[in-house]
Amino acid sequence: MKPGELLRAAGPCLDAAKMEAFVEGRLPEVSSHIEACPACAHEVASFREFLAAEAGAEQAADLNWIEHRLTPPWRAARRGWFQWPAQAPVPRWAMSLAALLLVVAGGLQVRRLAGPGTAGEPANMVRSAQLQITAPAGDVGVAPTQFHWENKGKAGAYVVELSEIDGALVWSGRSNQPNLSLPPDIQRAILPRKTLVWRVRALGTDGSVIAESAPARFRLMPPE
To answer: Domain 129-220 carries which CATH code?
Structure first.
């Protein structure tokens, strides 16, 4: 006798349709077999446990939608719980994962329809404009002594930041004009073939950022 046969009563086990009919109260005459067959009793108990864990209204609607999308057209007819592949109950973690994926997909769709850069921003937030940098940029033959950028008429001040390529701040300064001179010690710190990054922000009279530049890189490359 095979090990699996020790768990079965005499005679063949009930098929999925009969088990479902018994749980639904439509086939009470098979109760004696289920009581004598541990394998069938286990399947019936699992089915009842699954039915007892009912989802809420919103979750049920989501799961019904998922099942509809996953059901092939040729199996669109009513299907019993026991008729899933391999005649095994769907694991609860799989149903939870499917619902979670649906929520995530819905969130991504909302963000796509809302447009780029709008998710999570307050409704009254004013996005800063782009500020154009003039010099220095790219490879330069001599160490720069000034930074230059376009003038923003409504700007009350400008803040300049000079950083290493890894983001470490080297120096920052403030100006009321669209240019700013570098201190002598900072000029001496600009070494040949070393890339540095700088950016500038235009501030309004209330101190808020009204425009900012993209990071600009430059590198001192003296003539050979």
So the answer is: 2.60.40.10
